[in-house]
C-alpha cells in the first residue's frame, strides 16, 4: 500500500534524505522530504480542484461527482533524481484532459504511477474512487492504458495481440472477435491484421496499442503521447473516435507536446514542470486569453533568445 499523505503534510523522510539539488529553491511544500520544491512560476489557476474533498463514500463507480481519476501527492525519485514531486489532480468524469509539460517534466512517471505500472513513493491514485494500489484488479478494469515505452508482445500479429488483450480482460471469444474487427477497421489496420507487430511502423504500433487499450471498453482512457508518429489522417480519425467515446460518457487523459492539438481537442489541461503542477483547469482558464503555446512558454520558460552558434548560421 502507498503511504497516504496526512493532512499535516508529507510523512517522515525515507531512510536517506536526498540532498537538495542546488537549483531547487527551498520549499516547505515539497512532496519528497529532504528534497525541495522546484522554483516554478506562480500557478495560473489553482491546480484543478486538487483541494476538493473526494465525495464519500466512494461507493459505486458511477456516483456523480466522483472524479474519473484523482491523484493526490504523487511523488517519485529515481536515485537522486526527483521525477515527480507531489502532483495532485482531479480529472472530472466525461472530460477530455490534456497533460502537457517540457521533456522530463514527469508526465510519463505520473501516468505510470496513476495507472498501476510504477509504484509511487508517496501519494495515492483513485480511479472512479477505486485505489489503484490497494485494489489494482478492480481499478485496472476501469482503465485503458496506452503507455509510453512499454514493450508489447510484438511477436504476435496485430489481430492476435488485440485478441489476447480482449481475452485477458475477461471478454468472451465472440465479443473479442467482433471488437477486434471493429478496432482494426477503425484504426485502418485491416491490411496489417496478420502482420507481426514487430514489423509494424512506429505509427502502426501506436495504433495497435490504442486498440489494445480500448478493447475492454474502459471508462477511462489514459493515453501517453498517442499521436506521436501517427499520420495526420489517422490522427484525425483517432480524434473522432475519442470525441465519440467522451460524448458517450468516457473520459480521456492524453499527454502531448502539441499545444495546438491539446487546445483543439481537450476541454481541460494541466501543465507540469519539474515534477509539479504549475497550472491546471479548463483550457480557457489555463491559456487565460492567450494561446496555449504562449501560455505554456510563459509558465515553463526555457526559450533561448540566441540564434545559435555562428558556425550554424554562415553558409
Ligand atoms: N526509469 C528511470 N530511471 C531513471 N530516471 C528516470 C526513469 N524514468 C524517468 N526518469 C527521469 O524522470 C524524469 C521525468 O521523466 P518522464 O519520462 O516522466 O518525463 P516526461 O514529462 O514524460 O518527458 P517527455 O516529455 O520527454 O516524454 C526525467 O528526468 C527522466 O530522466
TrEMBL record:
PROSITE patterns: ABC_TRANSPORTER_2 (PS50893). Residues 1-31 are annotated as: Disordered. It is found in: Cell membrane. Residues 1-18 have a biased composition (Pro residues). One of its GO terms (molecular function) is ATP hydrolysis activity. GO terms for biological process: response to antibiotic. Residues 19-31 have a biased composition (Low complexity). InterPro entries: AAA+_ATPase, ABC_transporter-like_ATP-bd, ABC_transporter_ATP-binding, P-loop_NTPase. SUPFAM superfamilies: P-loop containing nucleoside triphosphate hydrolases. CDD domains: ABC_DR_subfamily_A. Keywords: Antibiotic resistance, ATP-binding, Nucleotide-binding, Transport. Residues 69-299 form the ABC transporter domain. It is a peripheral membrane protein. One of its GO terms (cellular component) is plasma membrane. This is ATP-binding cassette domain-containing protein.
Amino acid at each position: 500500500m502507498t503511504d497516504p499523505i496526512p493532512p499535516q503534510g508529507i510523512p517522515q523522510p525515507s531512510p536517506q534524505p536526498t540532498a537538495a539539488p542546488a537549483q531547487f529553491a527551498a520549499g516547505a511544500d515539497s512532496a519528497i522530504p529532504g528534497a525541495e520544491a522546484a522554483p516554478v512560476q506562480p500557478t495560473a489557476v489553482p491546480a484543478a480542484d486538487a483541494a476538493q474533498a473526494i465525495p464519500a463514500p466512494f461507493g459505486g463507480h458511477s456516483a456523480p461527482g466522483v472524479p474519473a481519476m484523482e491523484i493526490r501527492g504523487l511523488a517519485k525519485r529515481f536515485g537522486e533524481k526527483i521525477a515527480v514531486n507531489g502532483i495532485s489532480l482531479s480529472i472530472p468524469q466525461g472530460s477530455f484532459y490534456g497533460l502537457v509539460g517540457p521533456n522530463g517534466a514527469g508526465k510519463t512517471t505520473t501516468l505510470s504511477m496513476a495507472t498501476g505500472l510504477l509504484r509511487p513513493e508517496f501519494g495515492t491514485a483513485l480511479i472512479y474512487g477505486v485505489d489503484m494500489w490497494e485494489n489494482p484488479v478492480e481499478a485496472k478494469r476501469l482503465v485503458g492504458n496506452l503507455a509510453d515505452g512499454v514493450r508489447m508482445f510484438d511477436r504476435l500479429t496485430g489481430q492476435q495481440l488485440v485478441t489476447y488483450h480482449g481475452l485477458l480482460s475477461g471478454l468472451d471469444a465472440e465479443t473479442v472477435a467482433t471488437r477486434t474487427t471493429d478496432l482494426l477497421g477503425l484504426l485502418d489496420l485491416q491490411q496489417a491484421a496478420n502482420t507481426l507487430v514487430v514489423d509494424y511502423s512506429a505509427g502502426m504500433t501506436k495504433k495497435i496499442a490504442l486498440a489494445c487499450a480500448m478493447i475492454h471498453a474502459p471508462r477511462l482512457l489514459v493515453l501517453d503521447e498517442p499521436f506521436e508518429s501517427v499520420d495526420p489522417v489517422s490522427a484525425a480519425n483517432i480524434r473522432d473516435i475519442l470525441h465519440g467515446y467522451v460524448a458517450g460518457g468516457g473520459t480521456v487523459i492524453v499527454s502531448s507536446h502539441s499545444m495546438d492539438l491539446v487546445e483543439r481537442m481537450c476541454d481541460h489541461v494541466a501543465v507540469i514542470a519539474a515534477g509539479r503542477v504549475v497550472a491546471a483547469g479548463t483550457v480557457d482558464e489555463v491559456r487565460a486569453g492567450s494561446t496555449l503555446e504562449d501560455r505554456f512558454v510563459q509558465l515553463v520558460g526555457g526559450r533561448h533568445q540566441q540564434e545559435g552558434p555562428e558556425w550554424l548560421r554562415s553558409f
